[in-house]
Amino acid sequence: MISIFRPPSHKELIPENEINSRYKFLRWQVFIGIFVGYAGYYLVRKNFSLVIPDLIQQGYSKGELGIIAAAVSISYGLSKFLMGGVSDRSNARVFLSAGLLLSALVILGFGTIPFLTSSVAVMFIVMFINGWFQGMGWPPCGRVMVHWFSTRERGTKMSIWNIAHNVGGGLIGPLAIAGIAIFGDWQSKLYFPAMIAIVISFVTYLLVRDTPQSCGLPNIEAFKHDYPKDYDKSHEQEFSTKEIFFTYVFKNKFLWLIAIANAMIYLVRYGVLDWAPTYLDEVKGFSVKETGWAYFLYEWAGIPGTLLCGWISDKVFKGRRAPSIIIYMLLVMVAVLVYWINPPGNIMVDNIALIAIGFLIYGPVMLIGVQALDLVPKKAAGTAAGLTGLFGYLGGALFANIAIGFIAEHMGWDATFILLLVACAIAILFTAMTWKKEKERLEIVK
Fold first, then answer.
1. Rounded to an integer, what distance in angstroms lies between the CA atom of residue 160 and that of residue 150?
2. By C-alpha distance, which of 291, 113, 250 is closest to 191?
3. Is the Cβ–Cβ distance between 126 and 116 less than 8 Å?
4. 262/351 same-domain check
5. Which residues cross the membrane (predicted)?
6. SS3 182
7. Residues 102, 69: one domain?
8. In the structure, what pLDDT confidence band is assigned to residue 287 with cuts at 50, 70 and 90?
9. CA torsion angle for 295, 298, 300, 305 (degrees, to 10)?
10. Are 300 and 171 in contact (CB under 8 A)?
11. What's the number of CA atoms in the CB half-sphere (13 Å) around residue 234?
């Protein structure tokens, strides 16, 4: 492993009378760091969707562009899993910042170098590279979360952190509008957000710290007196790659169940999100400005929805995630149906449906991530999250990119919405299979 990525060594404990204040300060600092950093990743992840209508005008088909968009899903899914294993044995501060900087540089080049948009093959390669760097975002955030926040507070903290998706993703629409206004070309939808992401990568490095022990503090379980049922001191030691993958991840049956459910949730999430600009343009008659704001509303509606979902899971269902996921996905089915059958011209109804889908879909995405972190020791958190991400992106987002592009072109948009509704039903089914087991697995020893 490159030395710059290696976790910093543990420092000698600071004086006991300084631990409480220092811990509280650094917890806020690292939380803000991973929040801002992960929001920055979304400034350079999905903006390709906004330039699909522009590329169609240049002669590319929806099927071709779907293949290009799929490159991100393929590489991101693989990277999130494989780089998750690297992240579990790396310095989260460096890992998170480096991935964002590299991804931003790729998108900056994509928007400023004409050759990089010259063919399907070239664009596929560029998007694949970008997706690989994007996979360096979630795992180090998960590593930071499990080291700085204990199990009993993690559901709430994760729900707050998870809205970084929506903050970053929601800003893409307004930034696209601003970029065109400032620079006057469609490529600014790519390079303008990339400029901002580069700055954010340096801010992230300044804020994030790897583990409490690297700052001269005790582990979070000791500080909060919050020990999981299966916790022991060996969980504070770095595991080998073999131990992480085979002992704690591949043999975990419960993790596989939520990974399959995650694939279906991601199919719905990206099936709606990635194709919203094209669908609203072609079928609903939205202008570029109306599409940009619809994209914004979809993403930012997820903020209160995610927070409410986390609160319901912790307070109403006492830490059980499956009931909240099922309730939310049932409501997603209703919202997708309204979005589909609403006749063109009713812009307000379409926006309300998109707001509802955005409000609801990110809660299940977040809760499955929390489940993955809870199911394994801290030192395997990135890999566990990577497995659910692998299914989410290769099984869900990839299918959304490729299949929906071809289905919409050859079978029509109605067929794509039937696919989305079926995915909701499958996600509910696999989540329900975890219902009885979850309470025992999440039990905490007081």
1. 15
2. 113
3. yes
4. yes
5. 25-44, 64-82, 94-113, 119-139, 160-184, 190-208, 254-272, 292-313, 325-341, 353-373, 385-407, 413-435
6. helix
7. yes
8. low
9. -170
10. no
11. 6
Residue 1 lies in a domain: no
Domain enclosing residue 113, as ranges: 14-222
**Is the separation of the CB atoms in 312 and 318 below 8 Å?**
no
Count of the separate structural domains present in the chain = 2
What are the beta bridge partners of residue 228? 444
d(CA 340, CA 344): 10
Which single residue is written with the structure tokens 């955030």? 141
**Are 137 and 262 within one domain?**
no
- Non-local (6+) Cβ contacts of 267 within 8 A are 395, 396, 397, 399, 400, 419, 420, 423
Region 303-317 average pLDDT: 86
Q: How far apart are CA 259 and CA 308, in angstroms?
A: 23
pLDDT tens by residue, 123-153? 999 999 999 999 999 889 988 988 888 777 7
Residue type at 258 in one-letter notation? I
Residues 81 and 201 in one domain: yes
Left if phi > 0, otherwise alpha if psi is -120 to 50, otherwise beta: which for 225? left
Q: What is the CATH number of the domain that holds 63?
A: 1.20.1250.20
- In this structure, is residue 229 part of a structural domain? no
For 275, phi then psi, to 5°, come to -105, 0
First-to-last alpha carbon distance for the chain, in angstroms, is 38
Last residue of a domain, one of 190, 222, 254: 222
Please check whether residues 202 and 246 belong to one and the same domain.
Answer: no
Residue with tokens 């619809």: 294
Closest CA to 257 of 341, 163, 325: 325
Residue with tokens 């299966």: 230
CA angle 241, 242, 243 (to 5 degrees): 90
pLDDT tens per residue, range 242-260 = 667 767 677 777 788 888 8
